[in-house]
């Protein structure tokens, strides 16, 4: 773990989403230095499935040596953001550090505020265990994740750097390696267990994926009897599967080794499959000849957007537009394949 040095004592940190999860972990790490923390989040009353409010977070922050200012903030409401900033300035003076959820803006803001405010983006290399991950990934997902502590340590490392350190897109593990951290098992929920690569990074370590598959890190799909369905009308989904089928090869099958089932709602919906286990591969309407390793449920509209590159599967998954059952490592493999196919669709 990255040790606290006291360097953030007296600094004011404005953190959105600090009532729980990653935001709160960053807040507690900074608070141990004696930092002032502005807790900008929506939760004022405990949720039955998501513990923590801005007030309970404030108590934890002050218990470890920081000062807290809980502010009710919905980041979609500009007035609430402005009000929280005004309250922060009134209580603590100008804030000196901020956590943003807008990586797309990093380069522009880094240039705009050069010499005044450092603007950097931080992202995890692997999945991080939070309440949201439990809801999205289901039972047992935590064993494939790291703790929020790794993000807190990485953010703390960034906070300690000078204002000239700006405009960077940082991966948690990489910056901690630069800090001299060598043992990353301390951040794992289950040390030694294969980890899920983060959904939003464009890198999928093959050794990790293969290790996850060999150890069955995610429960397999339960067999269910599917009812016969009428032949679908021709349309965008059928055309998409036609192009996908034409793109298949023995090399693609060898690299993937999975069967995908798509439960689509809407026009041209129904059950469709992509078989990347059989020689040469196969795709089309109905049930696959072999049991599916992954079942994906979504609308036909989102399916077409997904395969044409207009909707990232990970974004659809995290927003609830895509539901996944089965082996998550193989689901990640499919996204990589989609990226290769999107130019043809």
Structure, described:
The protein is of the alpha/beta class. The protein contains 13 helices and eleven strands. Strands 9-8-7-10-11 form a five-stranded mixed beta sheet. A four-stranded parallel beta sheet has the order 3-2-1-4, with helices on both faces. Strands 5-6 form a two-stranded parallel ribbon. The longest helix has 15 residues, at 78-92. It is elongated and about 65 Å long. The protein starts with 11 loop residues before the first strand and ends with a helix. Mean pLDDT is 84; it is low at 203-234.
Keywords:
alpha/beta; elongated; 11 strands; 13 helices
Sketch the topology as an H/E string, one letter per element: EHEHEHEHEHHEHHHHEEEEHHEH
**Over all CA atoms, what is the radius of gyration?**
23 Å
Structural class: alpha/beta
Helix content estimate: 25-40%
Global morphology: elongated
Q: Can you tell me the residue ranges where pLDDT is under 50 for at least 5 consecutive residues?
A: 203-234
Widest beta sheet: strand line-up:
9-8-7-10-11
Let me know the number of strands: 11
SS strand fraction: 15-25%
Mean pLDDT: 84
Instruction: State the separation between the terminal residues, measured CA to CA.
Output: 46 Å
What's the main sheet like? 5 strands, mixed
The helix tally amounts to 13
List the topology elements.
Elements: E1 12-16, H1 21-31, E2 36-41, H2 54-63, E3 67-72, H3 78-92, E4 97-99, H4 106-112, E5 121-123, H5 131-137, H6 149-159, E6 169-171, H7 172-178, H8 206-215, H9 236-247, H10 250-256, E7 258-265, E8 270-276, E9 282-285, E10 294-299, H11 300-307, H12 313-318, E11 323-326, H13 328-341
Parallel strand pairs: 1-2, 1-4, 2-3, 5-6, 7-10
Antiparallel strand pairs: 7-8, 8-9, 10-11
């Amino acid at each position: 773990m990255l040790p606290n040095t006291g360097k953030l004592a007296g600094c004011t940190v404005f953190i959105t989403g600090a009532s729980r999860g990653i935001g709160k972990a960053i807040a507690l790490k900074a608070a141990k230095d004696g930092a002032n923390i502005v807790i900008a989040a929506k939760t004022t009353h405990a949720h039955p499935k998501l513990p923590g409010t801005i007030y309970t977070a404030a108590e934890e922050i002050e218990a470890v040596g920081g000062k807290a200012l809980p502010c009710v903030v919905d980041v979609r409401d500009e007035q609430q953001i402005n009000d929280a900033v005004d309250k922060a300035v009134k209580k603590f003076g100008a804030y000196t550090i901020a956590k943003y959820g807008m990586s797309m803006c990093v380069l522009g803001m880094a240039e705009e505020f050069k010499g005044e405010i450092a603007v950097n983006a931080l992202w995890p290399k692997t999945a991080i265990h939070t309440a949201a991950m439990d809801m999205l990934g289901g039972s047992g997902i935590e064993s494939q994740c790291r703790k929020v502590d790794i993000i807190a340590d990485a953010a703390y490392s960034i906070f300690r750097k000078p204002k000239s350190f700006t405009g960077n897109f940082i991966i948690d593990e990489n910056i901690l390696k630069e800090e001299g951290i060598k043992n990353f098992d301390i951040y794992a929920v289950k040390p030694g267990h294969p980890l899920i690569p983060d959904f939003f990074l464009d890198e999928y370590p093959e050794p990790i994926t293969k290790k996850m598959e060999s150890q069955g890190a995610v429960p397999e799909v339960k067999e269910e009897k599917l009812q016969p369905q009428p032949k679908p009308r021709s349309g965008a989904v059928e055309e998409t599967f036609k192009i996908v089928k034409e793109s298949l090869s023995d090399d693609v099958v060898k690299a993937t080794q999975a069967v995908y089932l798509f439960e689509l709602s809407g026009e041209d919906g129904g059950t469709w499959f992509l078989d990347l286990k059989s020689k040469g591969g196969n795709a089309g309407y109905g049930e696959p000849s072999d049991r599916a390793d992954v079942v994906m449920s979504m609308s036909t509209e989102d399916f077409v957007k997904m395969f044409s590159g207009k909707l990232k599967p990970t974004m659809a998954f995290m927003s609830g537009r895509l539901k996944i059952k089965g082996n998550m490592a193989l689901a990640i493999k499919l996204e990589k394949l989609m990226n290769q196919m999107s130019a043809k669709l």
